[in-house]
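Researcher: Next sequence.
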Amino acid sequence: MPDVLPLRLVLASASPARRKTLQAAGIEPDVLVSGVDESQVVTDRAEDLCLELARLKAQAVLTRLQPGDDQRTLVLGCDSVLAFDGETFGKPDDAADATRRWERMRGRSGVLHSGHCLIDIVGGRRAEAVASTVVHFANISNQEIATYVATGEPLAVAGAFTIDGLGGAFVERIEGDPGTVVGLSMPLLRRLLAELDLRITDLWTKVAPGNQIVEPLG
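Model: Next structure:
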C-alpha cells in the first residue's frame, strides 16, 4: 500500500472533547463509537486499565471497517481514568458517587491517565502508549460541588471533572499536557504516528473560512 494514499482517521470514541481536540489541531476524524463494555476490564493499575480499554475500543471499531483501495485508514482508541488516593476513577456511577468523589478530591491532587491505541487497518500494525498528567483540584465548597454535579457534566467524564468545560474553574493547575486531561494527547499521537512511519502533518486538513470546505493539505 503506497504511502501517497490519503489518510483517514477513525476515532473510536463518543467524546466530543476528543473530536474537538483533533479538529483544533487540524485533523477532521470520522467517528465510530465502539460500544465496548468498560466493566469487563478489572485491574488495580490505572495505566493498565486505560490502555486496555483504549485497545479494546480500537479493535472493536477495526472489525467494522474494510480496507479501501483509495485511502489508508487508521483507528484511534482512547480511554481516560483518574488515579486518586490509591483508587482508579472512571466515570461516576451516579450523582451521589460524583459528589462523594469531589468531597474527597477537593484541595488535593490526582493523576489523570489517558491510554491511546492507534491501529493501521492495513497489516494491523499498532502503536500504543499512556499519557499522564498531575491534576491539582481547588478546595471548593459543598455548594459548588452540589451545583456542579447538578449540571450533569461530571457524570459523563472520567474522574468526574473537566478542564475544558464547567469543571475548569475547579482545577487550580496541572503538571503535564492539558490534552491528556481532555482525553487525547496530541504530542503522544504524533509519536504514535511516527512509530507507524507517518507524520502528524499527513492528517492535517485545510478548512475554508466559515468551515464550508474541508480538503486535504498538499
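Model: The chain is about 30% helix and 25% strand. Residues 7-216 form a domain with the Maf protein fold (CATH 3.90.950.10).
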